Amino acid sequence: MPEINPYARLDRFIRAYAEKPGGLVRVLQKAQEIFGYLSPEVQTYVARQMKLPASTVAGVATFYSQFAAVPQGKNVINVCLGTACYVKGSGEIFAAFKKLLGVDADETTPDGLFTLRATRCLGACSIAPVVTVNEAVFAHATPETAAAIVARYRKEGEERKDAAEYAGLGRAAATPPPPA
Amino acid sequence: MLQSTRDLAELRQRLLPRLSFRTPAAAGPPAAVLVCTSMGCLAAKSEAVIAALKEEVAALGLDVTVHETGCLGLCKFGPAALVYPGQVLYLGLDPDAVRKIAREHLRDGRLVAEHLFRDPETGAAIAQLPNIPFFRRQLRAVLAQVGVIDPGSLEDYIAAGGYAAFATVLGWQPEAVVAAVSRAGLRGRGGAGFPTGRKWAAAAAQPAKRKYIVCNADEGDPGAFMDRSIIEGTPHAVLEGMLIAGYAVGAQEGIVYVRAEYPLAVKRLETAIRQARRAGLLGKNLLGSDFSFDVEICHGAGAFVCGEETALLASVMGRRGESRPRPPYPVEEGLWGEPTVLNNVETLANVPLIIRKGPEWFAGIGTEKSKGTKIFSLAGSINITGLIEVPMGVSLREIVFGLGYGPPAGRELKAVQTGGPSGGFLPARHLDTPVDYESLKELGTIMGSGGMIVLDEASCMVDVARFYTAFGQDESCGRCTPCRVGTKRMVELLDRITGGTATVADLELLEKLAEDVKDASLCGLGQTVPNPVLSSLRFFRDEYLAHVKERRCPAGRCRKLLH
């Protein structure tokens, strides 16, 4: 299947939302879904297409914690720092991740594998402290959980790299030769 | 498509058998299992439990259906499942456990003892949900259908009497609906407790043609998950509340502003909206009347301040979620300058009950000024964490010890924090305080949306106050100086106190600054962010003094003060 130009995908969405006032947050959410983060180029593009001042777009993009202006890691680790998690020691878990990954809050590891973020209450206080990695939820976490998570996703990252290389080879072999 | 209120009533009659065996009195062989798929249980792999259960039921050739259901409240012991008839509650499930339950209970009719609820005090197994003290001591009104119906099924909701309240009000004058809500004494469950009827009356009085109903499902309070649980457990009740509100004030459009961090709640709402549209319960000329109403979802993008009504509206309009001075109030000038009613999820979910059971029924529950029930999320240092619904006015002691069985063995209760960053601490000696809007306010805290965090002696009050203040600083929209700069300075002072470098003058400055931020901030966020500091100073000043004068943290929590 041919890859659709990401900007074309975004355009389609912007057109659908052009009728509705106030769609900027929604468009930026879509843009982040498509591009992974909101680069200055993407923000400028959105501003132009929606006929909004670039400052308005940047203002909204920087206001909400959901939006990131830099590339995010393959695995986004979210440590809940809501009250129930905090009083049960999620502060220490967050510190453990910082140390393990060598990054600060909202930073990504140099290999692009992990981004560390703090989240404000996932509303799952009864299983506190909670850590999520992408969609996966880890209940009753401890600093040891942090170590296990990092080890597991590093290993998966390695395996996926192998698999990707393997799949790449397979695809190359299956591609028909260009017509003479 | 339902064309009239009669169609709805007839449909309900046809659907009644779905729920007949799910009543407490029903008896007979097992017919259905409802498995909780709320966030706590999902994290404990309830999806694998459902898959294994379905497989085993099929393999054994049993005539038992398997459904999803919303949060039963005992999240700590998840995944949970209920077997009907009989309402037998099983906890701590995994695929092996449900295979066993399928063989022994569903096929052979024998209870599986090791997965039944055990009373934390006596150790006795209690099989039936209504007999478990945790449930017996509650008054589940808004949550009555949770654990009984499948939240993904419109048919279940209609069979349980859903949308009947909406059908009823279509036969009334809109003023009569507002009057009923006023007579019931319903107050906003989002925290401030403003009378809902008065808000609706103000919006109804506006001559504008376009009006909006906005459901606030932002729930940014750390330590609160009531709204998430209501939406996940009974999404149609929220839509029905919005329909009734729309009819009462003359609005045709509804928006649910929901947190992006709640993917399951969003999914359940989307499903409910789709089902309601298809059934003719949302859209044009509903049930043959000339009333039209539709609902859309607006995804929050992560900002605590968006729980504040004017900031929320700015966010819905695609702008930065900055608050603005009131008046004009949203009921006068809200979305796109039109009159807008903003109600919280729990407020709206109460509305169908008020209509169905009558305002007098509602007003008969609770205290003189705080009517009805309130849902709390109980968390922190407590044996049973989870979701509860109790009549207004019960004591904190009943909630913490009667329902939650207090802190774990060997721990001593120190304080209960209510209302999140806008609230405060109640020390153990005030445990007999009735939980209602006024009593809590008198003690320097608030009901808030209903988060309740139990703290034991291992928690340092200064540290927790710092936690909330840092939260407030981080979430300040930055528009007004007292909030933007004031909270930053407060965090610095608190850092000095927990770091052991503060003087008594710093402590005095902190208190003064907290008062100033409270007085001078523009919106509810800044006005309430100092509350945890002020409240802990009121009840736990000793602890501050120990930090400042003796360079000692009585709870042993502040690392820099450990020698």
Count every beta strand of chain A, where a strand is a DSSP E run of 2 or more residues: 4
Could you tell me the mean pLDDT of chain A? 86
How would a crystallographer describe the biggest sheet of chain A? 4 strands, mixed
Q: Would you state the CATH class of the largest domain in chain A?
A: Alpha Beta
CATH H-level superfamily of the largest domain in chain B? NADH-ubiquinone oxidoreductase 51kDa subunit
Number of helices of chain B: 23
Estimated share of beta-strand residues of chain B? 5-15%
Instruction: Provide the succession of SSEs of chain A.
Output: HHHHEHHEEEH
Tell me the overall shape of chain B: globular
Gyration radius of chain A, in Å: 20 Å
Organism (chain A): Thermodesulfitimonas autotrophica
Cofactor (chain A): [2Fe-2S] cluster
Keywords (chain A): 2Fe-2S, Iron, Iron-sulfur, Metal-binding
InterPro entries (chain A): NADP_DH_HndA-like, NuoE-like, NuoE_dom, NuoE_N, Thioredoxin-like_sf
Q: How would you explain this protein's 3D organization?
A:
Chain A has about 180 residues and is an alpha+beta fold. Chain A has two domains: about 5-65; about 75-165, Glutaredoxin, CATH 3.40.30. Helix content of chain A is about 55%, strand content about 10%. Chain A has seven helices and four strands; from the N terminus they run ααααβααβββα. Chain A has helices at about 5-20, 25-35, 40-50, 55-65, 85, 90-100, 145-175, and strands at about 75-80, 115-120, 130-135, 135-140. Chain A has a four-stranded mixed β-sheet, with helices on one face. In chain A, a hairpin with a 2-residue loop joins strand 3 and strand 4 (about 135-140). In chain A, helix 2 (about 25-35) packs antiparallel against helix 3 and helix 3 crosses helix 4 (about 55-65). Chain A is globular, with a radius of gyration of 20 Å. The relative contact order of chain A is 0.10. Residues about 165-180 of chain A have low confidence and may be disordered. Chain B is of the alpha/beta class. Chain B has four domains: about 30-135, Glutaredoxin (3-Layer(aba) Sandwich), CATH 3.40.30.10; about 155-365, NADH-ubiquinone oxidoreductase 51kDa subunit (Rossmann fold, 3-Layer(aba) Sandwich); about 375-455, Roll (Ubiquitin-like (UB roll)); about 460-560, NADH-ubiquinone oxidoreductase 51kDa subunit, iron-sulphur binding domain (de novo design (two linked rop proteins)), CATH 1.20.1440. Chain B is built from 23 helices and 15 strands. Chain B has helices at about 5-15, 15-20, 40-45, 45-60, 95-105, 135, 155-160, 165-170, 175-185, 195-205, 225-235, 235-250, 265-280, 310-315, 345-355, 360-365, 395-405, 435-440, 460-475, 480-500, 505-520, 525-530, 530-550, and strands spanning about 30-35, 65-70, 80-85, 90, 115-120, 125, 210-215, 255-260, 295-300, 340-345, 375-380, 385-390, 415-420, 425, 450-455. In chain B, strands 12-11-15-13-14 form a five-stranded mixed β-sheet. A four-stranded mixed β-sheet of chain B has the order 2-1-3-4, with helices on one face. Chain B has a four-stranded parallel β-sheet with strand order 9-8-7-10, with helices on both faces. The longest helix of chain B has 19 residues, at about 480-500. Chain B is globular, with a radius of gyration of 24 Å. The N and C termini of chain B lie far apart (about 70 Å). Chains A and B meet through helix 2, helix 4 and helix 5 of A and helix 3, strand 11, strand 15 and helix 19 of B.
